[in-house]
Amino acid sequence: MDRKSLWRRYVEFPVIYKIVIAFILGAIIGALVGVDVMSAIKPLGDLLIRLLKMIVAPIILFSLVVGAASIKPSRLGKVGIEIMVYYLATSACAV
Questions:
Q1: Mainly localized where (predicted)?
Q2: Which of 12, 22, 35, 79 is most buried (CB neighbours < 10 A)?
Q3: Which of 87, 81, 85 has its CA nearest to residue 64?
């Protein structure tokens, strides 16, 4: 099997199955390794969570901006206010 077909199979494999497999493998590995190993890799997990939190706000903001940009200018005033209220409310809840 060549490398390109292996990559193609990986990309075409449904994401939900990848998530379930990773969850099961993580649970098995977590049960098999000791506390020392888990405490050693904890900073990597903390870093991942911080990076995910850091990227959420810009994604939401840019998706709202793109959505507002696709609206007709005549409706933008009312919808723009609703978007800003929604964004501020969800940001306040997230913090």
A1: membrane
A2: 79
A3: 87
